[in-house]
Specification:
Helix 5 runs parallel beside helix 6 and helix 7 runs parallel beside helix 8. It contains 17 helices and 18 strands. The longest helix is centred in the N-terminal third of the chain and has 12 residues. By secondary structure, the protein is α/β, with parallel strands linked by helices. About 30% of the residues lie in helices and about 20% in strands. It is globular and about 70 Å long. The strands form two sheets. The protein has a 16-stranded parallel beta sheet with strand order 3-4-5-6-7-8-9-10-11-12-13-14-15-16-17-18, with no helix packed on it. Strands 1-2 form a two-stranded antiparallel sheet. Strand 9, helix 9 and strand 10 form a beta-alpha-beta unit.
């Protein structure tokens, strides 16, 4: 990683001099092009970096975060000027004091065009910067992967269109990611030019398109894009965000028709968040598809017919293995549509990972959701029911009874945040089914408060005692409340008693927000029970606005001998 960190920024004139004579050892990095360094200077420096690597220049000259897998060099202005005059190896120290050796050999400017991977980020570019980038794209190169993240706030349409046009020169590209911000000036003609460039990408394997604030893009843009999909015959992965496009059902239908021509597609992600669509055109028929991420969050006009169309389309995807469906805030969804969706999912023999979001779908009850829990091949199930106020009606056992069919289940996540109808009886019914899942590896639960009391937690704790294979467990209480008096030391004692028998447990997260009736004695009981868990690697507590935790209480919690402990608390 090339990280220029110093209190006094070096002059940009030093960079071309450095570029003409030197570079650092070839280590994997990522190229961040920032407005804090002119594009011309950055390009000159990058031209001399070793081929087939990713390169990085931080967006600021100080305070740049370096991950544990990356390396850095702290170059002072004098060092940079010295580098421009000598080819001798340089020795420098990292923040932790360890010493590393770096070489600065002479490299020809053509090396930039030998790079196979580039990630270019232009946070606040000018028209001149974009033209320089376009000029680079017109030169012969060896790019296989290109990631463009550009803010178009101050870019004219003419300049943007030149960039889109010049992309067609990258006919050997295999992976392309386009992330454009502030696209309010772009219009349908912009998408037409970009789509024409897509025709050149016969070798493209992965494509991501994200236009933020593109309010002038209409149905015509979607139709143009769909028409040119047929040229991407090798495409395996596609991710498109239509969050800000002015789309209707007719355009979405045209778009899906174009997608259905991609006969080699394996991964598909479509984001229609907050669009005014009913879902009537969402019928996919991709036989090769293995992973689907469909985001319809906030599509308040999604109706019964639309969800039925989605469900019927899923039946055509017989190769599907992983699905993430987001129907959050789609308030027209009722039990009838959810049952139909569950029945369609049951027709997918290879499905093993399901993440489905029904946040604030207030018409859904236990009767509708029970079909979702009858998928015999599932290994991972994540259901978000937060804000589904009627979910425990008329009888939560209708939902929990479906878990007896999940014989392959290894990971389960259930979120009942704000579900006012969920009670101790609901948690007991769920606990009875969970006690049958001795092979479960991961369990994450968010139960509503204050409808759940010590009795409900005790029932859950007893079921935990049978899950001898459990590796990860998290329990939290969710709700907009400032005081939860019904959760006391009894809950802690029952959890402590059963957790200490889970000899495979490695990660534990307990959230007791606003539980003011948990005392120091409860903490002593919990910490003592966990001391014997030699397998425990990560332990996290949340006590927001709850316990008055002082130094003595911290010492009690720190008794647990675990490599990583996180304690979050506010008085």
């Amino acid at each position: 990683m090339y990280n220029f960190l110093h209190n006094t920024p070096f002059t940009f004139s030093d960079l071309p001099a450095l570029a003409c004579k030197h570079s650092i050892v070839p280590i994997p990095t990522i190229l961040h092009q920032s407005h804090s360094i002119p594009l011309t200077s950055r390009t000159l420096l990058a031209q001399n970096l070793p081929p087939t690597q990713l390169y990085s220049f931080p967006s600021k000259l100080h305070g740049f975060h370096i991950s544990h897998q990356e390396q850095q060099i702290n170059l002072k202005p004098k060092t940079v000027r010295k580098l421009s005059k000598t080819c001798k190896p340089i020795r420098d120290s990292t923040k932790d004091g360890s010493t590393m050796t770096y070489n600065s050999p002479f490299l020809a400017p053509k090396d930039l065009f030998m790079a196979s991977n580039l990630n270019i980020i232009l946070a606040n570019p000018t028209n001149s910067d974009i033209k320089t980038l376009s000029s680079f794209l017109t030169r012969p190169n060896h790019l296989k992967t290109l990631k463009l993240s550009i803010n178009f706030k101050h870019i004219s349409n003419q300049t943007a269109h030149c960039l889109f046009y010049d992309l067609r020169n990258l006919n050997g590209l295999e992976n392309l990611s386009i992330d454009f911000q502030s696209c309010s000036n772009l219009h349908d003609k912009s998408i037409k030019i970009l789509s024409m460039s897509l025709k050149s990408f016969s070798c493209l394997l992965s494509l991501k398109i994200n236009f933020i604030d593109a309010k002038r893009l209409t149905n015509k843009s979607a139709s143009i894009l769909a028409t040119n999909f047929r040229y991407l015959k090798s495409l395996l992965s596609l991710d498109i965000n239509f969050n800000s496009w002015n789309l209707t059902d007719s355009a979405m239908g045209t778009l899906i028709t174009g997608l259905n021509r991609l006969h080699s597609l394996v991964d598909l992600a479509l984001n229609f968040q907050f669009r005014k669509i009913t879902g009537s055109g969402l019928k996919l028929s991709l036989e090769t598809l293995k992973t689907l991420n469909l985001n319809l969050f906030g599509c308040t006009e999604l109706n019964e017919e639309g969800l039925k169309t989605v469900a019927l389309g899923l039946q055509n995807l017989q190769s599907l293995e992983q699905i993430h469906l987001n129907f959050g805030l789609c308030k027209q969804i009722s039990d009838k549509q959810v049952s139909a969706l569950g029945q369609s999912l049951q027709q997918l023999p290879r499905l093993y990972n399901l993440h489905i979001d029904f946040e604030a779908c207030i018409e859904i009850t236990a009767n509708g959701i029970q079909e979702i829990s009858k998928l015999p091949h599932l290994e991972i199930l994540n259901i978000n029911l937060s804000g589904c106020t009627e979910i425990a009606k008329p009888d939560f056992r209708a939902f929990s009874s479906g878990f007896k069919n999940l014989n392959s289940l290894k990971e389960l996540t259930l979120d009942f945040f704000g579900c006012s109808s969920f009670s101790d009886e609901s948690l007991q019914a769920l606990s009875e089914r969970l006690s049958e899942k001795a092979y479960l590896k991961r369990l994450d639960l968010v139960v509503p408060a204050p409808s759940v009391t010590d009795q409900g937690v005790q029932n859950l704790a007893e079921s935990l005692g049978t899950m001898r294979s459990l590796n990860n467990f998290s329990l939290g209480f969710g709700g907009n409340f400032r005081n939860l008096p019904q959760i006391t030391d009894k809950s802690i004692e029952s959890l402590s008693k059963n957790l200490k028998g889970l000899t495979n447990l490695s990660d534990l997260f307990l959230c007791f927000n606003f539980c003011r009736n948990i005392s120091n004695q409860g903490l002593v009981t919990l910490s003592d029970s966990l001391k014997g868990l030699n397998s425990l690697k990560v332990l996290k507590y949340n006590f927001f606005c709850g316990l008055h935790i002082g130094e003595n209480e911290k010492e009690i919690l720190m008794r647990v001998n675990t490599p990583q402990m996180i304690l979050n608390h506010w008085k």
